[in-house]
Amino acid sequence: MSKLCAVFGGSRGIGKAVAHRLAQKGYCLAIIARNLDLAQSTAKSLGGGHLAFSCDVSKEEDIQNTFTEMEKSLGHINYLVNAAGINRDGLLLRTSADDMISQLHTNLLGTMLTCKAAVKSMIQQQGGAIVNVGSIVGLKGNSGQSIYSASKAGLVGFSRSLAKEVARRNIRVNMVAPGFIHTDMTEHLKEEQLKKAIPLGRFGKPEEVAKAVVFLLESPYVTGHVLVVDGGLQLLT
């Protein structure tokens, strides 16, 4: 099986770190993001043979068109990493319905739709692997992130159920649940206060999560698993 991987959300943060690690290991990559310029910049930084695509994962037509373009340019995808995500932190009573919908569509529905498209391709390749990037708050919850937590909690049930559906097709589905990682999405957090709840005493690095993602992509007998990468984070308050 060839090593062709689509990384949604691959232009920044954890997705970008995953892309760099996979490129070092000889994968051919499709870097997908809403911002095509950022995706192209990342693809260029990886060296030759990697391509960039623009896609809004909250829109099924966009995803279908992107997979068609990828298959024409690179061939059938047999590895998929879903790292695209947004957050609109705030108390439930202050959260608009539009903000709720945008988070659910991007973080949960978007992953479902990319997996659906990828599985079709992987069946033709007689195998493949998917890793969805969730969050520790989807397992433990966090005040002010109820909608974001719900979208990431949904990924747990989805990933584990899909793993059972496609295992007979030699397709594996796993998930990583990062804790507090240094990315654009965590810049607003009060790090000094939060570090007290982390036994390792620091925020994680995107590269550290990337190692977990690649481990799951390449582990032939691991499926339906949620790998927590949080430095031993205690219960959130």
From TrEMBL:
Q: Kindly name one Pfam family recorded for this protein.
A: adh_short_C2
> Could you tell me the superkingdom of the organism this chain comes from?
Eukaryota
Pathway participation: Lipid metabolism; fatty acid biosynthesis
Record carries keyword Hydrolase: no
Q: What is its main location?
A: mitochondrion
Its Gene Ontology biological processes? fatty acid biosynthetic process
Q: Where is the Ketoreductase domain?
A: 3-184
**Which locations, inside or outside the cell, does it occupy?**
Mitochondrion matrix
- Output a single Gene Ontology CC term carried by this record: mitochondrial matrix
Keyword set, alphabetical order: Fatty acid biosynthesis, Fatty acid metabolism, Lipid biosynthesis, Lipid metabolism, Mitochondrion, NAD, NADP, Oxidoreductase
Q: What Gene Ontology terms describe what this protein does at the molecular function level? A: oxidoreductase activity, acting on the CH-OH group of donors, NAD or NADP as acceptor; quinone binding
PANTHER family named among the record's database cross-references: 3-OXOACYL-[ACYL-CARRIER-PROTEIN] REDUCTASE (PTHR42760:SF133), SHORT-CHAIN DEHYDROGENASES/REDUCTASES FAMILY MEMBER (PTHR42760)
Task: Please state which protein family the record places this protein in.
Answer: Belongs to the short-chain dehydrogenases/reductases (SDR) family.
Can you say what this protein is called? 3-ketoacyl-[acyl-carrier-protein] reductase beta subunit
